[in-house]
Every structure is written in C-alpha cells, then in structure tokens.
Design goal:
With 350 residues, this protein is an alpha/beta fold. It has twelve helices and 14 strands. 35% of the residues lie in helices and 16% in strands. β11, α5 and β12 form a beta-alpha-beta unit.
Length: 350
C-alpha cells in the first residue's frame, strides 16, 4: 500500500523523526510512504507531488500546518484529486477542538479561528484522529501517531556526560511546565553541574514571533534562567537530537498545559527513552504506567520532594537505568512504528 503523508516538515521541530521511522517501517512491511511536496536536502525522505502515487492521503496536522505560502492551494489540489474516503486527518496538537485556554496556553487565539480550523478539518475527511487517550469531540477517534524506534537506542553509559540535565525543544507555551523543573532545581543548583536548554524562545523572543503575532507563545523569564546558570543553546536538527540528549544524565519530559488537558502524546515521550539519559517524567503515576509500563513510576518527578529526587537521579544513574531499560522493552513491544503502521493501514482501509 502507498500512503502519502501531508506534513510541513522542519528539521528541528515536530514529528520529523516519527515520519522518518514510519518510512523505514513501511519498507520492511512491504508498503511505501511518500511525503507530499518538493524534496528537502536536510530531511532525506521520498517526496512527490504526484497524487496518483497515493492509495490514501494522511494529513498529519501540527502547528506548522497552513503556515506556509501555498499551503491552501495544495489543500485545494489534494481535495480535488483524492476522493474523501481515501483521506484521513491526524490532529497531533488538539486543534480540532473548541477554543480552550489553560493559563497562558491555548489551542486557538479566538473562537473564530477555532471554528475555521474545524471547518477545514471537516472539509478534508470524516475520519479524524488525535493521539489522545480521550478525545473531547464525539466524532474523533484515538490513534497514537507518535511511536518508538528501537534503532534510536543509545547504550546507557553516563560516564562521559558533560551535562547533568538537558532539555531539547523550543519554548512555545512550555515556560509554565519548565518552571516546575526550575523550581525543583533551585534549592540544589549548587550541587548540580551544567544544565542546558537547546531551542528557540527561552532567553529571547524568536525573530519571527512579532511578525506572526505570537509573542505570548514564547513567554519566559531569561533573568531567572541566567541567575540559575541555565545555558541557552542553539536548536539541534533531528539527526543530532538523540546525541544531544545523550550528553546529559537527566532529560525532563514536559508537556504544554493544553496538551495535558487534551491528554495528548508527543514525540519527545518516546524519543527521550532512546537516548543515553534518565528521562524525568512530569506526569502522574497512573499515566506513566499506562504509557510506559510499571517501571516508569520510578522516573516520575513527584510533588513533595522533587529536589531530593533529582539529586538521587544524578547520584545513582545506573540504578535508574534499570527502569529505563524496562521501559524500552515495553515501548518496543507495544509502541513500535511497525505496530502503529499496521493500525494506521487498518484505519484508512476501514
């Protein structure tokens, strides 16, 4: 079967690693995945604008969708060429919902933009999916698009790490969840080594935020980060993501407030467990066990003494590596791209 993915890929954001792994899994299973669009030198995948190549078209909607010139024309072209029953939508960011705001985070700036988005999605397909445990809309089904690739795995050896903690990712509404990590680190900062954040929007507004009128997306407190000696470093391409995360003993997995509200999974939930690091989970124990298996509970940062936990992670990484290995086994068994691809093929063909 030939599946065409519609997604505007960025080399340092979004679901590019998932899509790369889906393409690899498809070849092994006798299928083919094509990316709609012109080839990108820094993202080596199979691209095509020939819609005759596709048995089904999968719209993978993220924050990049419809943000680039010509996207609307491409949408019209696809809808004209591909019958409705051969198109599905995977709404990764929970935008196919009424407007919701949690603190400073929101899925849409206005009710009008929410309605417009939902109209666009409904014009594409009746089959709408979200990577959510419980989609809020009755016409939305669950499909966990993000998955785990065992080929990503790095050996767990912390002897050469040059950071105690790293977070790799852009800010975009993540200051509030990051603040929980900062507050946990603050009492013990002098006992920790280097801490780094790789990504846009942590120490200053990205160059494009004013032009796009999204200054509030990148709210942060650079003075606090500087005071606590958090190093802000350049974003990394997906080809260097795992190597970068593997430089630190700890990597927190944090979630936008709106993603927590919609119970959405994210790429980083799976990618981090493949790195040479101890993932620190910002979720409750029940969710950790549900997604990652029973051993994941040992990696959850609790609310009562998170500073003590972080120090223990740093002092006993080999002990916690046992739980990381257990989670890797669980993810390989239940959350591989091959399993997900088979589920996806069943969904599109039903």
């Amino acid at each position: 079967m030939k599946l065409m993915f519609v997604n505007y890929l960025y080399h340092d954001a979004g679901s590019v690693m998932d899509i790369y792994s889906y393409s690899k899994a498809a070849k092994k299973l006798g299928h083919e995945i094509i990316i709609y669009g012109q080839p990108k030198k820094n993202i080596p995948l199979q691209y095509s604008l020939n819609l005759n190549d596709a048995d089904f078209v999968i719209f993978i909607l993220e924050w990049t969708t419809f943000s680039n010139e010509g996207d609307q024309l491409d949408l019209i072209r696809i809808l004209d060429k591909i019958p409705r029953d051969r198109r599905i939508v995977i709404d990764c960011d929970g935008n196919y919902n009424d407007r919701v705001q949690i603190g400073k985070d929101y899925n849409h700036k206005s009710t009008k933009s929410s309605q417009l988005w939902m109209e666009i999605v409904e014009s594409i397909s009746d089959k709408i999916f979200q990577p959510s445990l419980q989609p809020l809309k009755e016409n939305v089904q669950t499909f966990f698009f993000h998955a785990y690739d065992s080929d990503w795995e790095k050996p767990l050896d912390f002897s050469k790490n040059d950071f105690d903690m790293i977070y790799v990712g852009h800010n975009k509404f993540r200051w509030f969840p990051m603040k929980h990590i900062i507050d946990a680190v603050k009492p013990i900062r002098k006992e920790l080594g280097r801490i780094g954040i790789f990504g846009h929007g942590w120490d200053k507004q990205p160059a494009w935020s004013k032009e796009l009128d999204i200054l509030d997306n990148y709210h942060s407190k650079p003075s606090l980060l500087k005071k606590l000696d958090f190093q802000i470093l350049k974003p990394v391409p997906f080809t260097k993501l795992l190597d970068t995360m593997s430089r630190a003993t700890l990597n927190p997995i944090i979630f936008r407030s709106i993603f927590t509200h919609f119970q959405l999974t994210t790429p980083r939930m799976y990618e981090t467990f493949a790195a040479n690091t101890i993932p620190v989970l910002s979720m409750n124990n029940d969710l950790a066990r549900l997604h990652f298996g029973d051993s994941a509970e040992k990696l959850v940062l609790n609310g009562s003494n998170p500073d003590v936990q972080i120090l223990d992670f740093i002092k006993r990484p080999d002990y916690y590596a046992n739980f990381v290995s257990d989670v890797r086994s669980h993810l390989n068994k239940y959350h591989s791209h091959a399993l997900r691809l088979n589920e996806l093929i069943d969904l599109v063909a039903s």
